[in-house]
Amino acid sequence: MSTPFGDPTAETTESAMSELPDGHLSDPADFTDLSDFSDLSDTPVDEPSAGIGEESTAAAATPAYLLVRGSYRSVGTRVLELRVDVDGPRTLRKVSGDFFTSGGGTTSYAGSFVVHAPAVTWSPAQVVITGQGRFTGTTSFPIVRVSIARRRVGQQQAAATVQFMRTSGQVGASYSCQFRSPYFRTVQWEQDSVAGKVPFVSYDTGSLPRPPGSPAGKLTVPRAYAEAGIDVLVSSAANILGDSPAGWNNAELHAAMQTNFSLWRNIPQWRVWLLVASRYEGNAGVRGIMFDAADAFQRQGCAVFHDIIQGTDPETVRAQLRTYVHELGHAFNLLHSWQKGLATPPAPLGPNNGFGDLSWMNYPQNYNPGGGAPTGTDAYWRAFPFRFTANEITHLRHGFYRDVIMGANAFGRGAADIDPDLFDQPVADESGLRLDLRGKKHFAFGEPVVVELKLDTTDLRGRETHEFLHPDYDLVNIAIRQPSGRTLVYRPLLRRCVEADATVRLAVDGPPLYASAYVGYGQDGHYFEQPGTYLLRAAYIASDGSRIVSPVLRTTVRSPYNETDENVGELMLGEEQGTLLALRGSDSPSLQTGNDALREVVQHYEKHPLALYARMVEGLNAERDFKYLTPDKSALLVRPATPEQAVGLLSPVVEASLHGNGVDNITLNMVMRRLARAHAKEGNTEQANGVLDNLVQYAESKFRPHVVDTVRRQVDETRRSVNAGAEPGA
After folding, report:
1. Cα separation of 578 and 586, whole Å?
2. 3-state secondary structure of 538
3. Predicted structure pTM score
4. Which of 198, 321, 443, 577 is most buried, taking the most CB atoms under 10 A from its CB?
């Protein structure tokens, strides 16, 4: 194994006791007992349980044996955390482990392995598990043999002896691992909530019809994960935070986690934070979000939005449970059911491109197993057994350490190549839908790359589908072929989970769906930081599971013409600057360097074309209040909007864009309405209405009637807000 600590599978002698840092497996006394909904305790069995879809390999049935299952750990300077999964509920017939090395006062991760299909031999005395492992690095000893003595009820669980061998049979390293827990992994969960929002507690699975064989009982979030073999320990550090009726935006959630997650450290650790917030600013359809995807230590925080999921009737409480489990699933690096093929390594998709998965990670309203079977929310709940799928459980129990633990590999494994064939045109397309991807032919070095998506129908009868066309909602993916030949999927900085049944009917003579997306920066950093030619292609997953692929968009990032272009481009391409562009501004102290860089562009390169984007980010942030919590979490403070500053920054952006030298039209629409709001906050409603009138006139001169109608509706909504606070006669 290629680590600085040598090969953990090679022959070694263990001596000193080693304690693992916080976040690793706890003492057995720390593990809570489970209710009868999902019992993973040391239950006596007559024979080993068969795996999913497998027959038991027991040589003979002997009553009152303890389960051979769970987590084990060795001691010494080289530590093995072992997971044995050959017995008990939902057995997967696998063995996996993580290696750690200790020196002085530190412990470091050294690698992982998994044996996916071992041979398992049972006798009344012991179980022997043997198979070839898959390792995170190279090894000369790829064969793994685990021997565990069987114990009867009332006895202590036996230790596991683990040997690593060459294919010739030569034995390398051996580890003696003591039994730790019937669970495979343990996570500490801290949950905070805002004032007045009561978090979900439990759902009685017997209160509504359920699938045959699904047990009745009180199901909590920890018990949902316990069924998968994961122990979720609830932290006692829950706090009540201040709230604001205006809702929470991306920038505020990003800042809140960094200042209010009491267990948070910027390292990989088995700890996760969930905020029960009021609502998501600007979009009433967002039920939850896994927002920690901005730095090198991702997936440590998520949020659910109480105002949209609140209620006490059984249907609503059941949906609340699903939302909580779903968002925490993203923190474990589980993708949506229809996106698993884009993971690295890719996971197999379930029925109908994943839309047929009966999983916590699917959307109930999108459930569609294909073949004419019932679809939608009612069909999902009639069939859903309150479980993760077998592939998801494999990831949770046996995924490589850095792929699962919070704060390690980025969501979907981060900056990894994908198979470009995933975005090939389907061999046959009878979906009746058509997707187009548009963008500028040329971008300056450092210029934010924005693309426009358009979805319409080719079916004269019309087509109904969901309206979530923006890639932030995970139902659209954009592949980017870089000049080097590497292909990446744009992974948005913040992913929103929408679960409303928001559908639209498209007609040949009716308005298409449009969306504008900034795709220059995401979880993998900047996607367009090198001059050269880029190829982009989008894929939209429709409500029925159809995969609609756009034509290829070819665009070029030009080399800087002079030193000024190079300086400005480099100021725009910092990691924090990318985050600020994605968040449309933020007051977070962690992004101060990025704000300073954008301010330098505005102040020292004010005539440069890219200064418009820096002005836009600063102006949008200035137009709105920014909420942040005090260090003691007792109060929500508000940095009030500075409308005069916003007007000064946004007006040049609008002026240049109206003349074709600024932002794209969809972004211009948003900026002009925000400029009108800034004027209104200054008390100048006449100027605010003038900006909105200019927006309508611009739309009438540029767009088709159905697009103009959409702009008018948006303007009317903004106008009502602008005029609501005006003095009589103003």
Report:
1. 12
2. strand
3. 0.67
4. 577
Beta-carbon contacts of residue 250 (< 8 Å; ≥ 6 apart): 291, 493, 494, 582, 583, 584
Total residues found in the chain within this entry: 730
The region that residue 407 occupies, defined by phi over 0 for left and psi between -120 and 50 for alpha, beta otherwise, is: left
For residue 365, what are the contacts with CB-CB under 8 A and spacing of at least 6? 376, 377, 380, 499, 500, 501
The CB density around residue 642, as the number of other CB atoms within 10 Å, is 19
Q: Which two tokens stand for residue 66?
A: 């303890």
The CA distance from 283 to 78, in Å, is 50
Place of tokens 């949950």: 191
pLDDT at 32 over 70: no
Mean pLDDT across the stretch 198-218? 90
Residues 606 and 272: their CA atoms lie apart, in Å, by 43
Q: Is the dihedral of CA 429, 435, 441, 445 positive or negative?
A: negative
Distance CA 591, CA 255 (A): 9
CA-CA-CA-CA dihedral for 346, 351, 352, 356, to nearest 10: -110
Q: Residue 267 — pLDDT band, cuts 50, 70, 90?
A: confident
pLDDT of 359 > 90? The answer is yes
CA distance 580 to 591: 8
Identify the band that residue 726 occupies on the pLDDT scale cut at 50, 70 and 90: low
* 700 vs 29: CA distance, rounded Å: 70
What confidence tens digit (pLDDT) does each residue in 593-627 have? 999 999 999 999 999 999 999 999 999 999 988 87
pLDDT of amino acid 294: 62
Other residues' Cβ atoms within 10 Å of the Cβ of residue 635? 10
Closest CA to 249 of 583, 666, 580, 678: 583
Q: Which residues pair with 302 in a beta bridge?
A: 274
CA distances from 29 to 26, 32, 84 (A): 8, 8, 20
Q: 526 has which bridge partners? A: 521
Tokens representing 81 are 């955390």
Which letter does DSSP use for residue 590 in this model?
Answer: G
* Predicted local distance difference test score (pLDDT) of residue 415: 32
Neighbours of 317 (CB within 10 A): 19
At 430 the three-state DSSP class reads coil
The DSSP output letter for 20 is P
